[in-house]
Design a protein that fits this description.
Blueprint: H1 2-21, E1 27-28, H2 34-37, E2 40-45, H3 49-60, E3 65-71, H4 74-83, E4 88-92, H5 102-109, E5 114-119, H6 124-132, E6 137-140, H7 145-156, H8 164-181, H9 192-202, H10 207-214, H11 218-232, H12 237-247
Parallel strand pairs: 2-3, 2-4, 4-5, 5-6
Antiparallel strand pairs: 1-3
Length: 272
């Protein structure tokens, strides 16, 4: 009997620890049909359990906001996005620090979800970059519960949450970018190969098709694209195409203004 009691207490203790710590697993926090329950569905992605617990308690007081999952790493967040439809993700900025493709990957996996990033300190370059990549709100870790709730509701409704300081930073960044682009000396220099790849991108070709046409491998095309993104300051293929069309990049290089000729007699490989 004593062994049974001890085992039972040990199991209860383990369950209690697992519930409080959330050490990396994706945890479903609501029961029943999420769609039937309605409200704003939120995923909390934070490496610190104390913040996740605190935010969960804040949102538990609101009838129209439901935390559907928690994650402490990017990998856990991606898994949560796959299993739990969500409207808003509240993400700790530290989880994406030093990454290049985390936000584009998030957008690819959950195109309808809105992203809020919590930062420990305000930084002009980082804030501008977050908004440029599609983040809908940037808030400090010290934000009050009332403002956090308002932020989630505004962003879930399709608005952007941005303070006056961030507005000034974003406007200054775009002015600086516009001045740079109108200065011929500061125009980015692109190689013929890079221009040929850009021409293919503007025609909607996939990496595999581009590699087939210019006689290289798909990996080489991906490497070129990363260099092009860095040179032009864009994040993905769509931004690249829009950038080049708006600034007439290809028109200034007549020899590469068209993508390589696609012989109708040569079948293209299947698209990715």
């Amino acid at each position: 009997m004593s062994d049974q009691v001890a085992n039972g207490e040990a199991r209860n203790h383990q369950d209690h620890l697992a519930d409080d710590s959330h050490t990396g697993d994706v945890d479903e926090l609501e029961t029943g049909d999420p769609e039937a329950a309605g409200g704003i569905r939120v995923i909390l992605a934070d490496s610190q359990a104390i913040y996740r617990v605190g935010m969960r308690k804040v949102f538990a007081l609101e009838d129209d906001i439901r935390v559907v999952a928690q994650a402490e790493t990017l990998e856990n967040l991606y898994a949560a996005l796959q299993h739990f439809p969500t409207d808003v993700v509240l993400l700790e900025g530290h989880l994406i620090a030093g990454t290049v493709d985390a936000i584009p990957e998030f957008m690819r996996r959950a195109p309808d979800a809105k992203l809020i990033v919590q930062i420990s300190s305000s930084d002009e370059g980082n804030t501008v970059e977050l908004f440029r990549r599609g983040v809908r709100g940037v808030v400090p870790r010290s934000i009050s519960p009332e403002l956090l709730v308002r932020c989630v509701r505004k962003i879930a409704a399709g608005e952007t949450w941005i303070d006056n300081q961030s507005i000034s930073w974003v406007i200054d960044a775009y002015r600086e970018q516009a001045a740079t682009l109108t200065n011929p000396r500061s125009q980015p220099r692109l190689s013929d190969k890079e221009l040929a790849i850009i021409a293919c991108i503007t025609r909607g070709m996939r990496n595999k098709e581009i590699a087939y046409q210019i006689g290289t491998t798909e990996q080489v095309v991906k490497n070129y694209l990363r260099k092009i993104y860095d040179k032009l300051g864009v994040a993905d293929r769509l931004e690249l195409a829009l950038y080049c069309l708006h600034h007439k990049i290809l028109q200034t290089h007549p020899s590469t203004s068209e993508a390589p000729f696609v012989d109708p007699g040569i079948p293209l490989r299947a698209k990715l």
